[in-house]
Design brief:
This protein is α/β, with parallel strands linked by helices. It contains 12 helices and 9 strands. A 5-stranded parallel β-sheet has the order 7-6-5-8-9. A 4-stranded parallel β-sheet has the order 2-1-3-4, sandwiched between helices. α7 links the parallel β6 and β7. 46% of the residues are buried.
Length: 306
Amino acid sequence: MEKDILTLMDLAREDFEVLFERAIELKKRYKKGIADRPLAGKTLGLIFDKASTRTRISFEAAMVQLGGTPIFISAKDTQIARNEPVRDTARVLSRYLDGLAIRTYSQDWLEEFAEFTDIPVINALTDLFHPCQVLSDIMTVIEIKGDYKDIRIVWVGDGNNVAHSWINAAAVLDLNLVLACPDPYSPRKEVMKKALETGVGKISVTSNPVEAVKDADVIYTDVWASMGQESEQVKRERVFEAFQVNQALLKHAAKDVMVMHCLPAHRGEEITENVLEGPNSVVWDQAENKLHMHKAILDVLLKRNI
């Protein structure tokens, strides 16, 4: 496995399998009350430039449960906010910490951090990708469906950073992935191009959500306006109206379809209350699995530096 996880294209199929196996193992041990402390004496810096609930708390809890220490760093409180070059901050933090999880806007900013550190850098979300989210999502699919192979996964909504990471995963794991997005809000062409060039995975994009979810095993949605796009909220509500995940849409999917949402959810917008709280929803298992997947990521990446 590479030093960093900046996108899921950084991982080989074998790396995915290692992380899934370790996350499921750590979850089972945690449920049995077994305390694992492989990262005792290790420190994880969390540089967050964007607000967070699940990602921040699950990374902090993961580090504590593994015996290490998380250090939260608000980007606005660092010298980066006063125009210190990223490379200078990165090289100094390499001397203090054993790993970094970064949640920011720019993928380029994240990649510069990784270039100038000797420690693992983990993408905890950028505007372009959200790899750790999708790793925990696929873990959830494995738990409930038994495997991710021969599963029809349908994304409904904005072609955003989570959608991009699903595309990356499909290109490595040979997933059957359909993305139903309004035409102006499809995934970025360069992300699709790179994925399709691998020749792996069945990846397609459509503007017809009803056709897309036919026989779907997994339906996944997210907010229509992500962080930084709040000014587009009203416009997007009009454009995405036909892409709401509701009971009428679910009728076209498999009876045991899993409904996923990375949260926070805007009930009554991208997903209805009765679907989010309904029998097909796995969003709470999905949210919990962020903790266990983050533990696996930290265990694999940080132990290597011992």
